[in-house]
User: Fold this.
Amino acid sequence: LGVEVTDHGPGMTPEQRQRIFERFYRADTSGQHPGTGLGMSIVKEIMDVHRGSVEVESEPGRGTTVRLWLEAAPHDA
Assistant:
């Protein structure tokens, strides 16, 4: 199962994207955007617990897309 979320915000550089799952890491250091830098690290931890994965695509000036992938539960026949 997959869920995709896309925004049209400022996007991130490859260097910022590499650090997105670090606790308290904030790509925006200007203080213009609220947050603690915990959101994506929590998402990653939850996905790891459920044996899922997270994909992030981002480009400065073009926004960010995050995809969450989980295995579907097998159906009993």
